[in-house]
TrEMBL record:
It is a multi-pass membrane protein. Its main location: membrane. It is found in: Membrane. The chain crosses the membrane at residues 12-37, 57-76, 85-105. One of its GO terms (biological process) is autophagy of mitochondrion. It comes from Clohesyomyces aquaticus. This is Autophagy-related protein 33. The keyword Oxidoreductase does not apply.
Length: 165
């Protein structure tokens, strides 16, 4: 029975990690560049705000389920079969969220959430250049998240293949 539980946790974690990688990659490559082609800055700002809030919620849920499932598989594994790749992938998954946010905020020297709120508080007066900068900033952030989550996904697949699970 514990072996089935461990395998289920690994399966759920791997599938969710793949979904998380796909969400971030499609945002960075397809969705956000398409925002720059919208006709008005107001429409682009509204769409960016909508996408940002929905993506944050979805990514947080996927990240939580993934990290929990993989860490649980690590904890439930017998000591002899406790492979560190499960721990590494759960840490990478967690780092693809808060770690990326802190790293990018540190490198820019600004608070992205404050800038996003400033964008939303502008009301009807929208500066297209500020919207473009916000889209570009989110595009970079999601690209880095996709890279970190993709590395974790590759590590997880190779680790599971090595386990024979």
């Amino acid at each position: 029975m514990p072996s089935n539980t461990i395998s289920l946790c690994k399966f759920v974690g791997t599938i969710n990690l793949g979904l998380l990688t796909g969400v971030s990659a499609s945002l960075a490559v397809v969705t956000l560049p398409a925002l720059l082609t919208l006709s008005t800055a107001t429409t682009a700002r509204q769409t960016l705000s909508y996408i940002s809030s929905r993506t944050k919620t979805l990514s947080l849920c996927l990240r939580g389920v993934t990290a929990s499932a993989l860490f649980l598989a690590y904890i439930l594994s017998p000591r002899r079969f406790r492979h560190p790749y499960l721990l590494y992938t759960s840490v990478f998954t967690f780092a693809s969220g808060l770690g990326v946010d802190y790293a990018i905020a540190y490198s820019e020297g600004t608070n992205e959430q404050r800038q996003q709120l400033d964008l939303e508080a502008q009301g009807d007066e929208v500066n297209g250049e500020e919207v473009r900068q916000a889209v570009e900033r989110m595009k970079v952030t999601e690209g880095v998240r996709a890279a970190v989550a993709g590395a974790a996904f590759a590590m997880q697949v190779v680790g599971m293949w090595g386990d024979g699970a």
